[in-house]
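Journal club prep — side note

Before the paper discussion, L.F. wants everyone to see what a predicted structure for a comparable chain looks like in token form. Sequence:
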Amino acid sequence: MKSNITLIGMPGAGKSTVGIILAKNMTFGYIDTDILIQINQQKSLQQIIDQSDHWNLRHIEENEILKLNIQKQVIATGGSVPYSHKAMTLLQDISQIVFLKVSIDELKRRIHNYETRGIAKAPSQTFMELFEERQVLYEKYAEIIIDCDALNQDEIAEKIQKLTVLDQ
């Protein structure tokens, strides 16, 4: 039963901010999987990467999502969730998946802490390489794609609300 909305996209795409606005507008709950990880691990995402590696963060992220049993929630995911087919299959079953698509230039304008933000990436991977690798995954799983470059956060939330069709 699809009673939730899941937001996917690159770090800096606006998933968390749009998610809060959307949840408020729809009178839904709000879940940020990055915050779930930080609460349950008692560490920041960057600390998890520094103390182990990006593979461990992706594994933890997958496990947090696989524990979800929710309804009427907006879920803002970490940018690396689409690497997990298991997590994405669950999210597809319980929610409509919306890709917040933002251009590389706009993301570079928004993100100034690429190396310390807690992004699950290979140590030598550039932002452009990560962007190109993930775009394919986001498009693979998205049911709705919103081009966010020319829209503000309220307009994005409004557009998602108009385009989503959920089970009641």
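L.F.'s comment for the group: The helical segments are 15-26, 33-41, 45-51, 54-66, 85-94, 104-110, 127-141, 153-163. Keep this in mind when we get to the figures.
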